[in-house]
Amino acid sequence: MSLTTASARARRDWWVGYAMVSPVVLGALLFVVVPLGMVVWYSLHEWNVLANTFQFSGAENYQRLVEDQGLHDALWATLWFSIGLVVLNIVLALLLAVLLDQRLPGTTTFRTFFFSPVVVSLVAWTIVWSFLLQADGGINGFLSLLGIEGPNWLRQPTTAMLSVIVVQVFKNVGLNMILFLAALQGVPEELQEAARLDGASAWRRFRSITLPLISPTILLVSIITIVGSLEVFAQIDVLTGGGPGSSTTVLVYYLYQQAFQFNDFGYASAIAVLLFAIVLVLTLLQWQSRKKWVFHEV
Amino acid sequence: MNPRTAHRPRAALAAASAAAALLALTACGGDGQGVAGEPDTPDEPVDLRMTVWTADEKQLAMFQEIADAYVAENPDLVSSVSFDSIPFEDYTTALTTQLAGGNAPDLAWIFESNAPEFVSSGALVDLAPVLSEAEGYQYDDLEPSALELWKDGDGLYAYPFSNSPFGVFVNTDQLEAAGQKNPADLVAAGDWTFDAARDMAAAAAEKSGKQGLVVRDFDYQAWENLATVWSGWGAAPWSADGTQCTFTDPAMVEAMTWIHDATFADGAMPGPGTTADFFAGDAAMTITQISRASSLDDSFGWDVVPLPAGPSGKQNVIGQAGIGVFAAGKTPDVAADFLAWFTDPENAEKLSAYFPPPRESLLTADSLAAANPLLSADQLQDVVVDGITDAVTKPSHKNFAKLQETVRSQLDAMWTADADVAGVLGDTCDAITPLLED
Fold it and tell me: Is A268 in contact with B273 (Cβ distance < 8 A)?
């Protein structure tokens, strides 16, 4: 093979390679990198949409992040929401997956039942729940049949947050359940068999064999669920509007209020940068911690 | 390592910048200038766009008919006029997002609560020169009190095309079934008070198992609609100049206590989380704007009466809506010229079929009767014509968006049976005072 032919082939490969990745690279540039740069730029400005003014304000918006009590409340609400969602979602998803892994009669129906909300429109799902959770809605109607007087779910701070979490858990638990189920079915039967012969109890086998072997999936599911919990918006908007008080005003909802209700796009951009930083740090922390508890990373 | 997890940081980055992407699609709009007199003929005819919150086909058809006549009359200026219908709930948010995105409409409907914010922002052009100089416009016919909210000095920054008084629609079937008097008789006898309305509503609700008195669109969120009640106590959320919180004034405390008790003690008003649509027969009474009469049919007996009197007497309340011309629009002078056409005496009469106009000459029961077949001459006189006289508007402020959310958040603590009404109102004042001074 001559040198010229090799060089021509390398050049062609170079072009083909770049042509293949260009849609993704261009998409990422256009819809991720450039917007991210612009939102940082906006966050350094005082931008009044109505008055059509756009003035450089330096770190003023970031100073407000430190001083704004409303933001601090939103961060707390986000923390509670995330903890509640992640714990409930992962525990329930794992429990359901373990049950489905038993090959009992009716598992297909059961799996469909829990997975179907994943493919339902989020807003439609939430609107239906908003009717069920009203003071005189379906849930309290059912409770009254049992002689229980249900609370006004969406109008009390504690039950409002709990309601939003539960609605979100039921919406997405099916997806995590399927991921866990796939991981459970990948656990080698011979390892379980060997442990059984050694006299290990069911719980011991689950803790010492199953859990370590599905730990990569637990990592994946935790990252997806935590990132998802920080993005919650539609459920809050439809169910509570951030109330009662500011008990369910999570970070993204607060960002929305600042930008689109109060027209304070500069400050909202600073909140978006903060949200980005939080997601990045949390993801990096989980990624770094994987070596300590994820089986294949040991 | 699980290969799927390796991509998560990038996915996280993409997720976190979702808001950034939204913001990145925006750009600053162009500068606009005030307009006066005849518009300059543009290089080529322009397309005008007006954002509205109605989706009523009859209303939109009427707007289009008026607009088409303008296009036919001014082919050098405009090639078309379109009406962009945005849902009521998100109207102002959608409008400001369009402004932020450099896609300002030429004209827009504006809620009265946002009026001071829009008027003082410089976003709208001064219409007074165009309207006062337009041929046959009869600018002096415009009711000065109707224009007040939309003026800044001598400038008029929007035309209040709708001045719809609040009244009380009553389900006479439900009241009769509960052995209650007809509210119209109480009005005639001078006994139509909030206390009477509360008692009748509670009795009707108890009998029917449905709801009593509904302040429409309040829903424990849009608290500004409670102005239709507290105005009867002479109360207001803040001082006329918008600098002092007055939620703690005795009149407001009394009025809010009345609302609280009517809800939680008397069962006369639906509690939080309960939905009731009067027009679907779910409630005995509703306080709403007269323009909602079009939602009624013959499925139950109904009447409409003026707002009841409170301890400080009867106070009329109107909800206004204005049409403004955006300075950031492409041709504000042409848009202003179209507005002068859209609201001239002849077209204002057509619009009065749905929107009580700010023109004195049209505010008579006779002229409104032709356009409002569902309402009798007496109802029009008592509720519409008299209802606009000396009326106050719902609360408005140049910082209204933040005030609305802050007050909503504070008042949430009031909507429980054992709430300390005066204490909550005190907290509300503490929370909004910095916003009023802003």
Answer: no
Q: Is the pLDDT of residue B13 over 50?
A: no
CB contact set of B48 (below 8 Å; sequence gap of 6+): B67, B78, B80, B81, B82, B106, B107, B331, B334, B335, B338
Note the pLDDT of residue B26: 35
Regarding whether A261 and A148 lie in a shared domain, the answer is yes
Arithmetic mean of pLDDT over chain A: 91
**pLDDT band at A297; cut points 50, 70, 90:** low
Which residues in chain B have Cβ-Cβ distances shorter than 8 Å to A260? Answer: 93, 96-97
- The domain segmentation of chain B, as residue ranges, is 13-164+319-391, 166-314+393-437
What is chain B's Cα-based Rg?
A: 24
Q: For residue A216, is it within any domain?
A: yes
Residue A72 domain boundaries: 67-293
Nearest CA in chain A to B399: A262
| SS (HEC) of A251-293 | HHHHHHHHHHHCCEHHHHHHHHHHHHHHHHHHHHHHHHHHHHH
Q: Are residues A38 and A128 in the same domain?
A: no
Q: pLDDT band for position B371 (50/70/90)?
A: low
CB B363 within 8 A of CB B385: yes
- Residue A128, domain CATH: 1.10.3720.10
Nearest to A216 among B2, B21, B117 (CB): B2
Judge if B13-164+319-391 and B166-314+393-437 fold alike in CATH terms: yes
